Amino acid sequence: MKIIASCLIASLVFLGGCAATVTEAGYYWGDYSQTLYKYTKDPSETTLAEHVEELEDIIAKSEEKGLKVPPGIHAELGYIKARQGNDALAMGYYEKEMSLYPESRLFLERLTVETSKGSDQS
Amino acid sequence: MRNILLLIIAGIVMSGCVAVPVTDTKQSAFPAMYTDTKPVSMIIVPAINESTAADAGDLLNVTVTQPFANPGYYVMPVSIVSDIFKREGIVEGTQVKGLPASLFKKNFGADSVMFMTITQWDKNYAVIAGNVTVGIEYVLLSTETNEVLWSYTQHVVVDTSGGNSGGGLIGSIIATAITTATTDYVPIAFQVHQRASGALPYGKYHPKSGQDGADNVVNIAAKDAALSD
């Protein structure tokens, strides 16, 4: 059943043509490692803003190129937004990650619980 | 580039301290990756840094997502995961190594967990060209069965000089001094992971998932592991 379903989905994706794909070479990642490294080594508003900008750019460029957005990009943006107190935006990004990658559901739902707990306290 | 690779290979073969790499197919090297135990998602715990370079852990942690997601796996967001670990007081893989792998299934929903041990990260400041010798071991465990799904050990020398500078010997010395001072090690860490993940069977999100069983892989893992004991 699962196999049939995934075949159907796969054929829909192929037939769709415009639907986001994953190429053999992988995804579009821009300068992801670089901005994450800078932020990890020197966590500041500037380095965080640069990393956020890179994450947003990866989403924009992937969509432009018709590629699937890489795993974790939406989740990471959501996590940053949640920490900045923007729960609504955070949820939106988590939802997007879960729809692209259903394997992320359990993890993100736990983060969501954490996020709403955080706003209860504030 | 090809020349450098050849030199490295020749160096390995001639030095005699490492056995000649054994070529195997992906399926016979990693049979568990071609059964129901093949994971869709993986959580990568912060690297265990046994090298003398304090920065090696961060470098290899921030660069690991891309090379391991590209072959088709859902890599749990490394930066979020490490943040959660940090809040629990975990900054290095050693602190979670003894825990049952099932914990990662229960808490993160991950099918597999990957441990990385950095055994060497030695910068070499030569006159003409700098390089880094990197030793790293990867072990991917199933969070359901606890078995080793995939492992890879590598020892590589990565050139950091970034092309020729021209300007004769003195020019080269200055250029090397400058590049070693400001060498960007992010792409180097990335290259190391990229080499390793090339030996990983393709995952669900890769167009060739399940079709690479007959692909060759240079399986140096077993040899190196045997030698390191």
What features would you describe in this structure?
The complex is a heterodimer of chains A (122) and B (229). Chain A contains 6 helices and no strands. By secondary structure, chain A is mainly α. Chain A has one domain. In chain A, α4 packs antiparallel against α5 (87-100). Mean pLDDT of chain A is 84; it is low at 7-18. Chain B has 229 residues and is α/β, with parallel strands linked by helices. Chain B has a single domain (2-6, 23-208), classed as ABC-type transport auxiliary lipoprotein component (Rossmann fold, 3-Layer(aba) Sandwich). Chain B has helices spanning 2-15, 26-29, 56-62, 65-69, 78-87, 94-97, 102-108, 168-182, 186-197, 221-228, and strands spanning 23-25, 41-44, 48-49, 74-75, 112-125, 130-142, 148-159, 216-218. The longest helix of chain B has 15 residues, at 168-182. Mean pLDDT of chain B is 82; it is low at 8-19, 163-167 and 222-229. The chains are: A mainly alpha (122), B alpha/beta (229). The interface between A and B is medium-sized, with 29 and 34 residues.
Describe the secondary-structure layout.
The complex is a heterodimer of chains A (122) and B (229).
Chain A: H1 2-16, H2 32-41, H3 45-65, H4 73-83, H5 87-100, H6 105-121
Helix pairs in contact in A: 2-3, 3-4, 4-5, 5-6
Chain B: H1 2-15, E1 23-25, H2 26-29, E2 41-44, E3 48-49, H3 56-62, H4 65-69, E4 74-75, H5 78-87, H6 94-97, H7 102-108, E5 112-125, E6 130-142, E7 148-159, H8 168-182, H9 186-197, E8 216-218, H10 221-228
Parallel strand pairs in B: 2-4, 2-5, 3-5
Antiparallel strand pairs in B: 1-8, 5-6, 6-7
